[in-house]
Protein NO VEIN C-terminal domain-containing protein (Staphylotrichum tortipilum), 468 residues
Amino acid sequence: MGKGGKTFSWFWIAGFSLVSLCANIASLVGDISPRTTALSLYLVNVTLLAEGLQNLAVQDGGQPGPTLLHPDLPTYWYWGMSGICDVYISRTKTDTQCRRRFPPTDDLLSIVEASVRDRSGGDPSGVVSAWNTTLSSLNPSRLGDKRGSFVSFTKASAALLVLAAIFDVFSPLVGLIVFGNNKSYFAPYAMPFFAAVFAIIAATLATLAIPQGEFGVARSGKNGGAGITIVFVGAAMRLGSSVMGICCCNGVEKDNDTWQPPPQPDYWVTPPQEHYGQPDRPPQQQQTPGAPDIATTGFEGEFFINNFFATRIPSWNPIASWTSHLRANAGIEPFTRNQRDFADFTYDDHDGAMRTALRTANVAIDPAWSNGTRFHVEVKATLGNGGADMFLRESQLQKMREYDHEPDNAYIIAHVVRAGDNNPRVEFLVNPWSLYRAGELEIDPQREDDDPGTRRARLVRYRRSSRL
């Protein structure tokens, strides 16, 4: 993805993150004051609630309960994420008073008491007693554990909405960091995607909360307030934008179109086009003086494989895919990450170019490989023929075992023979751990004269043919 594509993607992420954040904040401040009652999650008609509870009391107890309506009780209770508002509607005016709660999980008797006290300042005990008597006369099976469910749903909804808002705040920052470092991760789209999922779950839980508890028993609540609608719309837009970004851009790909060879490269030339041909390489004086033969041979092999892929994969970028410290010998900026965590070459095959390149080399393609497969190519270069010893580190053996026939990670040994000669050859060993288990690859125990953590390996068929 070039700079223009990255800039567009970042603005795409930032823009929709802002929309989603505004939607989440609008819902979070619902009923924090009289000015935000329009952002309520739901409302309760106090008259319908009182009549409904009295009718249920008659059904369950056989006798009408005390009068529940009182002049100091509001017409509606508006329920928001940050409070409960008492709305008094008369012919001449509408009065609203709000109590801040986050999240609002007050039970019915507490709400009745607070409404009467805040309205007149009088003693609410008589009104509370009447409501308590009516609730006590209901069949216990009507309420069951609905009160607990109401509290759980409300708290979970509030927590998820806050988490979604946090994700929306940091999504543009994560995108900026990842784009700047050319990482091949889905993180810039993953964060807003999960933010949208959290918001959708939060709105769903808020919708499910009101049927619980005393309000749901009397069917006096009204779901789907503006607060819930805003969250759903914002989350849906965020979810759609994230999915489109992932599908259209394959996440944030490595910057494969900005690499250029070093300026005035007197030793770097365009790789040759002939199959298995000798790659043009830096002259001997460009290599580190006094370097061990094994390091020189290793570089020759890696340089050959880099040129091999460069002639067959149009988007090949050694800065992104040559993940070995030896690449510095070719004039490429040094690889600074821990070498033990990477193979010599790492390539995310989003478009199948790696599979095509291997197929041209008569390599059997694993049916499990797909556009989501990451290829780990370890180069083992020898000066001799195919039966010469290869040296494997313990970390490489571990990756061989871990990635054996693993659909998301393909581990391949590129065995380069006659490295540094005029006519080197390469043989790609796919799933080398399976070759070892099948007896086709021989791995020796640790030898005293070898470096610690290094073991020798060789292809058995060459050893057998030499005995014939």
